[in-house]
Amino acid sequence: MGGPPVTDRLMPAAFVGHGSPMNAVEHNRFTGAWSELAASCPRPRAILAVSAHWYVNASAVTAMERPRTIHDFFGFPEELFSYQYPCAGDPMLARSVVDLAQPAWVGLDEDSWGIDHGTWLVLAHMFPAADVPVVQLSVHAGEPIAYHLELGKRLAPLREDGVLVLASGNVVHNLRRVDFSRPDAGAGWARQFDSAVQEVMTSDPKEIVSMTSHPAFGLCAPTPDHFLPLAYLAGMAEVAGEPARVLVEGCAYSSLSMTSYVIGTA
């Protein structure tokens, strides 16, 4: 699977509530938790990132030597548009993803996508030197949550090969309900759903599939792109035989959840 692991210890896997692109350049308790996570891990040989912002009608993985930095947003300060995350890619890891995913089909993207802000705004705090190779996996828009849970299970062996798996999204993500006057608060429905997901993830992660039937799911995930990356961590937790633990929790701007989860760390 692309060479020997850097460590004989199983690498962690995590889901990060990434929030606003401004988190790339801001320092707060959420970005601090991401930095602390990286500091507590063995150094990975590579990173597999599952980003909510590559939401397409297929499963695909970046397979270029030098993925470009994608600025997939608008209306933010120029410093974000000029930011570059010049990490290397890892075509051999990409091919391992394709092999492990079978019989599900995952396409090799050698020239189209790159590293979008769902990935680099987190890695800017975890590995600011951009000195760990990164490949990014798309979120298949045409498949139900059970597909993503199963794909997470199939990709779990990567953790044995020195690969840090990082899924990036938001448990609650409703941009139409954002209230900028409440930067550190969540609406009642957002907090209720966030708590229900936390109960599942910290007890029986495979039951994350039931959350799509929660009464508040449609309000919390009007499109499922930001929620589905959590299923990859849930699948890996099932393989590991351990529930996830909360890395950091909380809501922001009324309708975003910044709650993040991790497995494989003390």
Main attributes of the structure:
alpha/beta, 6-stranded mixed β-sheet, two-stranded parallel ribbon, disordered N terminus, 8 helices, 266 residues
Write up this protein.
The protein is 29% helix and 18% strand. By secondary structure, it is an alpha/beta fold. A six-stranded mixed sheet has the order 5-2-6-1-10-7, with helices on both faces. Helix 1 packs across helix 4. The chain is globular. The two termini are 26 Å apart.
Mean pLDDT: 92
Largest sheet: 6 strands, mixed
- Helix fraction? 25-40%
H and E string: EHEEHHEHEHEHHHEEEE
Terminal residue distance? 26 Å
Number of strands: 10
Major sheet: order of its strands? 5-2-6-1-10-7
- Regions with pLDDT < 50 over 5+ consecutive residues? 1-7
Output the structural class: alpha/beta
Summarize the structure.
This protein is an alpha/beta fold and 266 residues long.
SSE layout:
Layout: E1 13-17, H1 29-40, E2 46-56, E3 60-62, H2 78-81, H3 91-101, E4 107-109, H4 117-126, E5 134-140, H5 145-155, E6 163-169, H6 188-201, H7 217-220, H8 229-240, E7 245-248, E8 251-252, E9 256-257, E10 260-263
Parallel strand pairs: 1-6, 2-5, 2-6, 3-4
Antiparallel strand pairs: 1-10, 7-10, 8-9
